Amino acid sequence: MRSAAGVTGAKRIMQRASALQAVGRRLACLSNGAPLVASQRRLSRRGLSLIRCYQSGQYQSGPPPGQPYQPPQPRPTRFVDWAVYKGSAAMCVKVIWPTWSTPVSGGFQVKTREGTLLLEFAPNDKSSNTPATTTRRYLWDQKESFAMAITEMGTVLVEPQCSFMHDPAMGAEHQGSVVKSLSIAPMEKGGCFFNLSVRKRQEVVKMSVPLTSGELAVLRSLINYLIPKLIGFEDDVDVPLGSSTS
User: Is 146 exposed, middle or buried (0-12, 13-18, 19+ CB in 10 A)?
Assistant: First the structure.
């Protein structure tokens, strides 16, 4: 015996299959006896496959008889990054997604901050570089970071050489206490250097990570993929009322 949900789902499948077949027959009539084009044949075959799948028992709506319904399990949280490990330092690429807020009126969300591409640099632990060790170690507790804005990411895509400067306290009382600069310089044999300099009052920390041509291509591919998402343009973003579609 099929459950009520299974019977309802089966009826919907039969109705959909019949509608697809009817459309296929209608298209055949409109063609005045001419052979069906590929799209028409696919449409008709789809209806037949749905009917045959249901009649053979391969289609099943709802849980098997005698088993309780099991709701789908939520996907576990996943953390993704990409890192490049070199002799002097390592660079890890992470994503900070845009933030959204819901107004008091509710019903929709507005973007409050664009996302950024976070570059984290960690120096090599030189004390671990001995002939007996085969794995490099890095001092991630001494890492320095640089958050690339959307336009800076675009610059990396089109410019072989560029530089950016950030003051995290810009506009605050302690403005200028920390200044970060990131420069990207091409190498003679392809690829480029990512040079980070962080000035904290009287102390200056510098780290440099060379990227091969392949590693640079991977980074640019990631940037090209992430820019629309970090801006907030997703498949489910609604178009504001009154906006032009021309």
Answer: buried
Which position has the token pair 């006896």?
33
Does residue 190 come out as left (phi exceeding 0), alpha (psi in the -120 to 50 range) or beta? left
Which of 45-54, 210-219, 233-242: highest mean pLDDT? Answer: 210-219
Per-residue pLDDT band for 117 (boundaries 50, 70, 90) equals very high
pTM over 0.85: no
Q: Which amino acid, residue 110? A: V
Two tokens at 224? 């090209």
Alpha-carbon gap, residue 219 to 224, rounded angstroms: 9
Beta carbons of 237 and 109 less than 8 angstroms apart: no
202, 196 contact by CB (below 8 A): no
Chain centre to alpha carbon of residue 191:
24
Quote the Cα angle for 89-95-100, to 5°: 150
Q: How far apart are the C-alpha atoms of 225 and 98, rounded to whole Å?
A: 15
- Tokens representing 116? 């950024």
